[in-house]
Design goal:
The chain is of the alpha+beta class. It has 7 helices and 7 strands, in the order βαααββααβαβαββ. Helix content is 41%, strand content 23%. Strands 1-2-3-4-5-7-6 form a 7-stranded mixed β-sheet, sandwiched between helices. This is N-acetyltransferase domain-containing protein.
């Protein structure tokens, strides 16, 4: 794997719109058409993918933490990003976060918005509770999104972004937890030392899609790789 020593990682605070748009663009490029879960989340309407990712980023800025990997100081130098909520930073728990998410949710058909509240949310909560124990997910460091522009894959950028969150968790004896849905992502995270703790299957009119819960525990042999 090629390591890029010119990459810098910083926490994004009070970003200008061009930076947010750059992150949205790289997330779209990173996930491409390979992630069936995101197709589920937008109800098959791919025109909503940018709105969804922008809602994710803005909601996390309001109630969590966003870190970016950059090749320089300009907005278009951003090549990777990660969103995270630390202990007690529950997603969608602030007015600003809810408002950001509502921009996306308001564009969904009523039936699919109902699917979000009556199927998706309970299934994801069930996955967390069955895999980690009730309430345990939000007591750890939770990674919501991780993306790197395809032309910068295999340069250690994703691992470096994950390491930022892992190093925040380690001194407190906490874990890093995340969900993913593709075989490729499972392989990547396992190579980083993450373990699969559980799985549920989502169902909607588009078919079925799996979601896996993974964790990495500070202090373990895998964590120090």
């Amino acid at each position: 794997m090629e390591q890029n020593t010119n990459i810098t990682i910083r926490r994004l605070t009070n970003p200008a719109d061009p930076e947010v748009k750059q992150i949205v663009g790289l997330l779209i490029a990173a996930f491409g058409g390979e992630d069936g879960l995101h197709n589920f989340l937008v109800g098959g309407d791919t025109s909503l993918v940018p709105t969804k990712f922008e809602a994710n980023v803005r909601a996390t800025l309001a109630g969590g933490e966003v870190y970016v990997a950059s090749l320089g100081t300009e907005a278009n130098d951003i090549v990777g990003a990660i969103t995270c909520h630390g202990p007690g930073q529950k997603p969608n728990s602030t007015d600003e976060a809810r408002a950001a998410n509502e921009v996306f949710l308001s564009k969904l058909p009523d039936a699919h918005r109902e699917w979000w509240s009556e199927h998706l949310a309970p299934r994801v909560e069930q996955l967390a509770n069955d895999s980690l124990g009730p309430g345990a997910k939000m007591a750890q460091y939770y990674v919501g999104l991780l993306g790197v522009r395809p032309e910068h894959h295999r340069k250690g950028i994703a691992k470096a972004l994950m390491r930022v969150i892992e190093e925040k968790a380690k001194p407190h004896g906490l874990s890093v937890v995340l969900e993913t849905s593709t075989d490729l992502d499972l392989l990547i995270y396992k190579r980083m030392g993450y373990e699969v703790k559980g799985q549920v299957t989502l169902e909607c009119f588009l078919g079925q899609a799996p979601i896996y819960m993974l964790t990495k525990t500070p202090g373990s042999q895998l964590f120090t790789r």
